[in-house]
């Protein structure tokens, strides 16, 4: 506590020193005389820009011990090191979290429109100050990447979609409102797609807001999806039917087998004892 108070006094004394004022040297000597000189004081003086004055004092009057200077240098170096590590944490691409942006998609026969929201969830607020947007189509995969340094933390966004069908390499895209962007993709073959991605686990929501703007093609797409759902439901029903039929057929055979093995065992006992 006492040390803290002493240091606070030194701090305020140093704060009152003017870098270019008159009689700096005398004031510095006074501060050094009044306070027990330690690393912290010297470090503080150096960080406030009095480094050259201190070097002069060492050269002329030798009132500052070399060892004090050495330890001040060490602690300043430690500060720099910490700063560097902190900086590395924010810029090291292996270290920070990569978020998949949220997308919605709609289509006409000729185009696919994708709305990208740089957020954790569809209903979460989008990141602000999103920059370095990169849209690429390579090896049949569409990749969307960007980054944000919101709150001084570097957040990376990355999403790669193996597209169901081929598209034109030149993708028209623009940043929309805060933290969102829209892609306008041209299909190579004019037809509706059932899914956006080849990967069955990719479930992207449909951008129904564009239904009116796009018109008939979105109606057809909607029907396509409904039919697909019906088809899947029917398929599941039929599978269940087949399975239950198989079980019914299996049950008697199991019973028969059980009966048969029991009979065999009985026969063995009988032959043993009689
Ligand atoms: C997308 O691009 C096509 C041209 O390729 C254009 O006709 C269409 O209006 C665009 N859609 C939007 C929503 O910008």
UniProtKB/TrEMBL annotation:
Coiled-coil residues are 218-248
| Keywords on record | Coiled coil, Signal
Per the UniProt record, the source organism is: Paramecium sonneborni
Instruction: Please give the start and end residues of each transmembrane region.
Output: none
Q: Which residues form the signal peptide?
A: 1-15
Give all residue intervals belonging to the CS domain: 98-212
PROSITE patterns given in the database record: CS
Would you tell me the protein name for this molecule?
A: CS domain-containing protein
